[in-house]
Amino acid sequence: MYKVTPNPPEPETDPKKIQEATDRALDYYLKPKQAKPEKKPSPGQLFTIVDGIDTESLLANLSETLASADAMINDLAFDLEGSRRQVALGILQLIELSGLLANRMLDSVNPQP
């Protein structure tokens, strides 16, 4: 039995079109497009906080950072004398108050029994 088969399409002979198709295929696999950030940080910005972090995590990190600052200024204050010590103790008090505020806010976000 003889089966009729269609003729294959004629190959593309235009070298410019072949080169463009080849470049598109190679770029697709070898040069994937990077996701562009929605907003660029300012040139002088060194640190940033990732978008989408929940309030509890932010407050917990704030509380830990204030506790670290408290420990550092506490050690420094007792190595100083005179007015420099008074300034360090004043900074220590501000850090302590900020820590209390952060911890109270953290308790209201995630009440602990």
Topology:
Elements (H helix, E strand, L loop, with lengths): L14 H16 L24 H23 L5 H27 L4
Describe this structure in words.
The longest helix is centred in the C-terminal third of the chain and has 27 residues, at 83-109. With 113 residues, this protein is mainly alpha-helical. The chain has a domain at 55-109. It has helices at 15-30, 55-77, 83-109.
Multimerization status: single chain
Q: Low-confidence segments, ≥5 residues, pLDDT <50?
A: none
Give the biggest beta sheet. none
Number of strands: 0
- Give the helix level as a range of percent: 55-70%
Radius of gyration: 32 Å
Shape: elongated
Q: Output the helix-strand order.
A: HHH
Pfam family, one: DUF6124
Protein name: DUF3077 domain-containing protein
Brief summary:
58% of the residues lie in helices and 0% in strands. The termini are far apart. The protein has helices spanning 15-30, 55-77, 83-109.
Key structural traits:
0% strand, DUF3077 domain-containing protein, 113 residues, single chain, mainly alpha, 3 helices
